[in-house]
């Protein structure tokens, strides 16, 4: 006689893929993989979409491959499926994703007895999926696990429904019809609060945008209320623009981030936030950045646009080019200074721009050095997503230290210039800035060599009390140098 448990196991369980088994959507992932391969595909995507969703998915899947081993699986639900499979239950992967994507997942997991997926001419979603399941297993001859509004019609026609990380519509359906503990019933989505939002925005990186205050500060213009307001608006605008680019960068780098020990916890790589949510957030942030730019001089908007163009090019291609990437990173820091100049109508300073190029080039090289140290590629292989090999570590370190000395040399020449004499009552008090800057930069390099530093040197500086003390001493010297006493 068959007991209740074995009776359940004789009924096949059909499992949805996107949003259910994995915390992402493979159509969106495929789109970003395709655009990363060649941005010009953006012109073909609408053409394919006009022929239907099934055709679009097929064309994308023909050109890109996913790494099923790194996808963000819903682990609690996956453990449940593995227990069902181990108990002899037949599991079927029934998904609207393209066939090659679905088969890659099924092959990686090894728990599915069959795969039903979208073909070139049929999108296996909602009604099409229900029709296929009824044809294969009969009316109410299957259980079904899904997560979205499109799955509700299948929930209603399945023998039992398992609701996994539901959207609003699926959650409402579950509340109305109740869970079913025997079949697994309900697997809620992990909560993502303010911490997740800040992580998505990379709020800790906003400190870099305080560079917009530096030009008016060094020009002694921060005593003007109007200048302070304009600099503050530029700061918020740049933070919004930078966060939008961080989001886009994360969407392009999903597979690379998932292979990284630390970056795999990022909100999009881990599946905490959906790709459409990220696209919407990036557009809203961009609108905020330009809305605030309208309150500032037109020159600021030109700098902001240049920043966005360069960062987009960096995300799309430049970050994979040997040395070009670090030169661009150094230039992006300098653009923040130019944004401060433009927003506050502060006169341009050759000395400040020259110093920033050398100083931030050194920090950019530190970042690449640490990446090569923490995740060294195999011999003659390149660092994932970059143009560097393990053998390049020494030349990167030498170039970085040389850049640090170059920055101090520019600073020393500036201290002895007429510009300082006209701005400060006691120019000789600025000389200690040279050893201070050298100490901060060389300390970063020494700690990088010891493998004791975060891979972002700017973030590291904010948490290193010794460097912060040096910064405060340097700021005090600048204040004292400008006071008549």
TrEMBL record:
Topology term for the membrane: Multi-pass membrane protein
Gene3D superfamilies on file: HAD superfamily/HAD-like, UbiA prenyltransferase
Taxonomic superkingdom: Bacteria
Subcellular location: Membrane
A single GO cellular-component term on record: plasma membrane
InterPro entries linked to this entry: HAD-like_sf, HAD_sf, Prenyltransferase, UbiA_prenyltransferase, UbiA_sf
One GO BP: glycolipid biosynthetic process
Keywords for this protein: Cell membrane, Membrane, Transferase, Transmembrane, Transmembrane helix
Pfam families named in the record: HAD, UbiA
Membrane-crossing residue ranges in chain numbering: 229-248, 268-292, 298-317, 322-343, 349-366, 395-415, 427-446, 458-483
Entry's Gene Ontology molecular function annotations: transferase activity, transferring alkyl or aryl (other than methyl) groups
PANTHER family, alphabetized: DECAPRENYL-PHOSPHATE PHOSPHORIBOSYLTRANSFERASE, PRENYLTRANSFERASES
Protein name stated in the entry: 4-hydroxybenzoate polyprenyltransferase
Organism this protein belongs to: Phyllobacterium leguminum
Lineage of the species this protein comes from: Bacteria, Pseudomonadati, Pseudomonadota, Alphaproteobacteria, Hyphomicrobiales
């Amino acid at each position: 006689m068959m007991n209740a448990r074995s009776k359940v196991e004789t009924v096949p369980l059909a499992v949805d893929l996107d949003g259910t088994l994995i915390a992402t959507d493979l159509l969106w992932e495929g789109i970003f993989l395709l655009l990363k391969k060649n941005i010009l595909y953006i012109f073909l995507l609408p053409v394919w979409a006009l022929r239907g969703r099934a055709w679009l998915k097929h064309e994308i899947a023909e050109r890109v491959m996913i790494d099923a081993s790194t996808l963000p699986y819903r682990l609690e639900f996956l453990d449940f499926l593995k227990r069902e499979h181990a108990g002899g239950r037949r599991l079927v992967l029934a998904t609207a994703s393209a066939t090659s994507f679905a088969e890659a997942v099924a092959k990686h997991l090894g728990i599915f007895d069959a795969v039903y997926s979208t073909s070139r001419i049929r999108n296996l979603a909602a009604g099409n999926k229900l029709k296929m399941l009824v044809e294969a297993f009969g009316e109410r001859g299957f259980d079904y696990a899904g997560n979205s509004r499109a799955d509700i019609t299948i929930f209603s026609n399945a023998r039992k429904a398992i609701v996994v990380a539901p959207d609003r519509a699926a959650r409402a359906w579950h509340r109305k019809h109740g869970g079913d503990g025997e079949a697994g019933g309900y697997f809620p989505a992990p909560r993502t609060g303010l911490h997740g939002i800040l992580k998505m925005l990379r709020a800790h990186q906003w400190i870099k945008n305080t560079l917009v205050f530096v030009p008016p500060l060094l020009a002694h213009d921060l005593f003007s209320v109007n200048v302070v307001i304009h600099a503050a608006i530029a700061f918020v605008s740049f933070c919004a623009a930078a966060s939008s680019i961080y989001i886009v960068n994360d969407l392009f780098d999903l597979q690379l981030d998932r292979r990284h020990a630390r970056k795999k916890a990022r909100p999009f790589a881990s599946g905490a936030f959906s790709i459409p949510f990220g696209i919407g957030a990036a557009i809203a942030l961009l609108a905020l950045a330009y809305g605030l730019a309208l309150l500032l001089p037109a020159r600021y908007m030109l700098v902001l646009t240049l920043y966005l163009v360069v960062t987009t090019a960096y995300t799309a291609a430049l970050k994979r080019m040997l040395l070009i990437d670090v030169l661009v990173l150094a230039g992006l820091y300098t653009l923040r200074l130019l944004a401060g100049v433009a927003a506050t109508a502060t006169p341009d300073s050759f000395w400040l721009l020259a110093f920033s190029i050398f100083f931030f080039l050194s920090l950019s090289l530190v970042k690449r050095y640490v990446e090569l140290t923490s995740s060294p590629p195999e011999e003659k292989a390149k660092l994932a997503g970059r143009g560097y090999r393990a053998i390049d570590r020494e030349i990167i370190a030498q170039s970085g230290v040389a850049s640090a000395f170059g920055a101090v040399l520019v600073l020393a020449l500036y201290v002895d210039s007429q510009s300082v004499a006209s701005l400060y009552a006691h120019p000789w008090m600025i000389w200690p800035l040279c050893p201070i800057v050298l100490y901060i930069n060389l300390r970063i390099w020494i700690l990088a060599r010891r493998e004791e530093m975060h891979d972002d040197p700017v973030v590291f500086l904010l948490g290193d009390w010794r460097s912060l003390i040096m910064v405060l001493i340097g700021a005090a010297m600048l204040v004292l140098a400008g006071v008549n006493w």
